[in-house]
Amino acid sequence: MKVLVVGPGGREHAIVRALLADPYVTEVHAAPGNAGIAQVVPVHSINASDSEAVTALARQLGSDLVVVGPEAPLAAGVSNALVQAGIPVFGPSREAAQLEASKAFAKQVMAEANVPTAMARVAATAEEAADALDTFGAPYVVKDDGLAAGKGVVVTTDRDEALAHAQACFDAGGTVVIEEFLDGPEVSLFVLSDGRHVVPLAPAQDFKRIFDNDEGPNTGGMGAYSPLEWAPANLVEDVIARVAQPTVDEMASRGTPFVGVLYCGLALTSRGLRVIEFNARFGDPETQAVLARLKTPLGGLLLAAAKGELDAMEQLKWDPRTAVAVVVASENYPDTPRTGDPILGLVEAEAIEGVHVLHAGTAIAANEIVSAGGRVLAVVALGENLAQARELAYQGVDAIELEGSQHRRDIALKAERGEIVVPAGSAGVDNEQDLA
Question: Omega of the bond prior to 139 within 30 degrees of 0, cis?
């Protein structure tokens, strides 16, 4: 099987790496890829959101499957074009990707499917935003309704800051979704869908804030780990029954079946399980941790989803070890990242047993690998337990040199210390919720 992976980041590098481990995959290409991906498979310099260019490349390569990684190509309709050309694609249509591209749309779908989520209001003016903020109270949660690469959310106790973020979204021609604050630990669960059937992967937890102790602005994600030893035993079954399957069923009933991965961002609150957000693709950096543990061949799994055959898949097999991914980011990320600096120590990091490095924002300049984005690398480690995986991951991080770079030192630390508290009854409780 020949597979084309579309996208430039760490998520795509993780997918490429997993596909190369699939004995049924004979050839992998990436477009546009990055410096790390280019070391292991051929890369093609095209615009990932250009439907015609992606379709032409897939035809030229004779691809049996195209895997669309990022959200922007999905929202641009790349999957639509591939389906029209008769090429199997893992990634939802433009219409189905609205689950991520519009938070207001996602709230409507959840309301119709009776999926538990935060109460919310859509605001298009400063007056509507102020009224919604006062209705829900602090902490205030304000989300850009459109795509924002994981950085369009502000959670704050400062009402003026919340209003300022809403106004910035209005000034850019958008709207916002203002929600009640959800307490409790957060969980990410990837659920593969073929439009009718769903197959869950292993739960993970990521870390959005730039600094230790969850301080500073939101980023696309500074690290992740999997599995979650502290999660309720019935969590995955609960999410499938109350969140994923009802959402997939609702999308099918609308004539826009969801084929791809439904990223369920969840909160285990004192009032029960709640959906924070949906994404229409693999999350980054959770993918780096989750796929490091997946033993079931990835290519066959994604092709089954693309062809509507997930119901025939056997139970997934997992590496029993724990995976921890730590992101190394550029100086001044998430604002205006510094780029163009050489990255040293990559060979030394990968020489550590149980460690591999996945590239995100990297490029080749003057025959050396340099930084080319905000999140530059993810160092991923597999350990017999969380403590060992963390130790190995940070050994890898410490081996890498990038001037001005930053990373968190507390990825999965609370879990290692047993400090994550799940509210009683957080899973399996059906409490009131609606789109306010």
Answer: yes
Secondary structure element (H or E) that encloses residue 16, with its range: helix 10-20
Structure tokens at 77: 């309709």
Helix (H) or strand (E) holding 126: helix 126-136
**What is the full DSSP assignment across 57-102?**
HHHHHT-SEEEE-SHHHHHTTHHHHHHHTT--EES--TTTTHHHH-
Q: Are 58 and 4 in contact (CB under 8 A)?
A: yes
* CB-neighbour burial class of residue 61 (10 A; exposed 0-12, middle 13-18, buried 19+): middle
**410 φ, ψ (degrees, to nearest 5):** -115, 20
Ramachandran angles phi, psi of 166, nearest 5°: -60, -45
Alpha-carbon distances, residue 113 vs 43, 95, 105, 247, 434 (angstroms): 41, 17, 12, 6, 11
DSSP 3-state percent helix, strand, coil across the chain (nearest 5): 35, 25, 40
The CA distances from residue 54 to 10, 58, 68, 340, 399, in Å, are: 19, 6, 10, 28, 37
Element (H, E) at 382: strand 375-383
Which token pair is 253?
């009933």
**pTM for the whole thing?**
0.91
3-state secondary structure of 412: coil
Nearest-angstrom CA–CA distance, 65 and 120: 38
Low-confidence ranges of the chain (pLDDT < 50): 150-151, 429-436
Name the one residue in this structure whose structure tokens are 């999410």: 239
171-215 pLDDT tens trace: 988 888 888 888 899 999 999 999 999 999 999 999 999 999 999
Read off the pLDDT of residues 326-382 as tens digits, 9 standing for 90 and up.
999 999 999 999 999 999 999 999 999 999 999 999 999 999 999 999 999 999 999
